[in-house]
From TrEMBL:
Transmembrane domains' residue ranges: 242-275, 287-312
Single annotated GO MF: glycosyltransferase activity
Record protein name field: Glycosyltransferase
Record family assignment: Belongs to the glycosyltransferase 2 family.
Coiled-coil boundaries: none
Glycosyltransferase 2-like domain sequence ranges: 6-143
Enzyme superclass (EC): transferase
Record-listed E.C. numbers: 2.4.-.-
SUPFAM superfamilies according to UniProt: Nucleotide-diphospho-sugar transferases
Annotated keywords: Glycosyltransferase, Membrane, Transferase, Transmembrane, Transmembrane helix
UniProt-listed InterPro entries: Glyco_trans_2-like (IPR001173), Nucleotide-diphossugar_trans (IPR029044)
One of the Pfam families matching this protein, by short name: Glycos_transf_2
Length: 331
């Protein structure tokens, strides 16, 4: 008998994180699932880690040449057996009630596709907690990604995404886009009149990037991807997507104005103070509050510069689709 859920995990050189994720899967209260781990051309494989969990769960391991996360998810989906596919990033950890929360939501109301929010685990480093704040706070536009109050409708993201297997296959899975492929997939879900819902109780702990340099690369690529998506689906561009670019231009203008009137810097200091106070309270740490100021500026200006750069190349110069930092996507 086939399982109800197939957990698809693409991985690249992250055996320790895969171990944490699989350990959390082994403690799920809902047991009707299989796990499909796909190694995307790693030089540090996780097969030994996967083998450790063979006695306690239905798990299969595959390896392939590196092609990026989208194609790797498709590879795993093609070899899955479940009625629903759940796509997880390898740097996630699940609470023991994660699958039970998904089951309860689907029993309450059917969904063709769904997703859940993310949180910072107590074991995360202060930088990881600061980055998590920047990616989930209303003050950085991150709050639209997985909260009940959003400035745009909910688009599942690939770190925590579920979809009916037949819907996944009918849509052809993830596209060839190197970045933004999860939003591209979500857009196609909506275009095909599928029912898509946020499952607030199906949250994960998500480690994200481990330093600000890697975080900048991630969000810069996201800004570029937003313009690439706009060129494919013009109606997908919303006001909220412009805010980081507006913020980035505003920062530059304030810094230039400060050469004449130093008092203009108070605008940036006020924003930094709001971030510091809010994050310090939420994380119960002044140090994380300080780091969150840096994370917020990296998140907004990283995305904003990527967005503006892609806008210039694709909308003004009429260049073809492109992305940045491809060789270091996972780093």
């Amino acid at each position: 008998m086939n399982p109800k859920y197939s957990i698809i995990i693409p991985v690249y050189n992250r055996p320790e994180e895969v171990d944490e994720l699989l350990e959390s899967l082994s403690r799920q209260t809902f047991k009707d699932f299989e796990v499909v781990v796909v190694e995307d051309g790693s030089s540090v494989p996780c097969k030994a880690v996967v083998d450790k969990y063979l006695p306690v769960m239905d798990i299969r391991y595959y390896t392939k040449l590196n092609s990026g996360p989208g194609k790797t998810r498709n590879y795993g989906a093609e070899r899955s057996k479940g009625a629903y596919l759940i796509i997880l990033d390898s740097d996630c950890i699940l609470p023991e009630g994660y699958l039970q929360a998904v089951e309860i939501e689907l029993e309450k109301e059917p969904a063709d596709a769904f997703g859940g929010p993310d949180r910072a685990h107590a074991s995360f480093t202060p930088v990881q907690k600061a980055i998590n704040y920047a990616m989930t706070s209303f003050f950085t536009t991150g709050g639209i990604r997985g909260g009940k109050k959003k400035m745009d409708k909910f688009y599942p993201r690939s770190f925590n995404m579920g979809v009916r297997a037949d819907v996944y296959r009918s849509l052809g899975g993830f596209s060839d886009m190197r970045f933004g492929e999860d939003i591209d997939f979500s857009i196609r879900i909506f275009k095909n009149n599928c029912r898509c819902r946020l499952f607030p109780g199906a949250w994960v702990w998500h480690k994200r990037r481990t330093d600000f340099r890697k975080f900048f690369k991630q969000v810069h690529n996201s800004g570029i991807a937003r313009i690439n998506l706009y060129k494919k689906y013009p109606e997908s561009l919303k006001l909220v997507h412009l805010l980081p670019a507006v913020f980035t231009v505003g920062v530059v203008l304030v810094l230039l104005a400060a050469l004449i009137c130093p008092w203009s810097l108070l605008l940036l200091l006020f924003f930094a103070l709001v971030i510091f106070l809010d994050s310090s309270v939420r994380n119960k740490s002044l140090w994380i509050g300080i780091l969150s100021v840096g994370a917020a500026f990296v998140q907004l200006t990283g995305y904003g510069t990527g967005f503006l750069y892609a806008w210039w190349k694709r909308c003004v110069l009429r260049k073809e689709s492109f992305s940045a930092f491809e060789k270091s996507f996972y780093k």
